[in-house]
Amino acid sequence: MNQILSISHLSKIYQSGFQALKDINLEIAKGEIFALLGQNGAGKTTLISIICGIVNPSSGRVLVDGKNIIGNYKEARSLIGLVPQELSTDSFETVWNTVVFSRGLYGKPANPALIEKILKDLSLWEKRNNKIMTLSGGMKRRLMIAKALSHEPKILFLDEPTAGVDVSLRRDMWELVRDLKNNGTTVILTTHYIEEAEEMADRIGIIRKGELILVKEKLALMKQLGKKELILQLPFPLESIPSGLDIPGLSLSTDKFELTYTYDANSEQMGIGEVLRRLSEGGITFKDLHTKQSSLEEIFVNLVNAGASSNES
């Protein structure tokens, strides 16, 4: 993997004794879209803050394109663009000036053509002379991204990028992220919108109570952990599953009108064909059938709940 970010044995313990991160190990490739999922307080923002040089780690190492975020802070930080969750801009400044100023903070020479392209890509060009206070919430979110892109970073961190924006704007921003990936930018995002990760990410990382419990390619994750269901709609209610049809994973709905066979395509469970044959031999008829696969949201919830259950036991 042609990595641009390497995190080794990273931990963070605050003075209060609270351990926010526990031995995090992660490598992210150039041009990858990586989604970091976790509940509030799981450690997502702490991890991003350490990578961006805002918070010091208690132990471990972070390399950004081979540069140590502590030993080579200025060089490493210049490769990173950060769009924080909270909107913080100078309300009395114009869109153009604030983006130009952000580029200058990194010692980059003036580049009006680049700033123009960024603003046009983000649909902010018509607002370039407007004061920030006049922008809508969605436009301010776009402006934060423009500021983060102004110094041409190799990695862009998006902390809850579509929080508080409407569905249409959210989809516009998804398109923008894909364009950034196509241009070679590595994008790392945290999100509460599971469909956001399902839509865009190449890989998924799930963090729980400071521990990175899983990192996997999105499709492989859904294939490995996503349960599948065969749902049979019955023409009339079935009081109970006949005793001869003791098929593991087969259940009857509460309204008695559906049989559901839950299975894992990678396991040695009975195949759909065999299940249908057994049901037919048992005198079970159905008027319709369809299959369903677990969504990423269901997988995430199950993993988090599994962790909570194990901690309680």
TrEMBL record:
InterPro entries with a match to the protein in the record: AAA+_ATPase (IPR003593), ABC_transporter-like_ATP-bd (IPR003439), ABC_transporter-like_CS (IPR017871), ABC_transporter_ATP-binding (IPR050763), P-loop_NTPase (IPR027417)
Keyword Membrane in record: yes
Name of one Pfam family that matches: ABC_tran
Keyword Nucleotide-binding: yes
GO molecular function, one term: ATP binding
Domain ABC transporter: 5-234
Assigned keywords, A-Z: ATP-binding, Cell inner membrane, Cell membrane, Membrane, Nucleotide-binding, Transport
Protein name per its UniProtKB record: ABC-2 type transport system ATP-binding protein
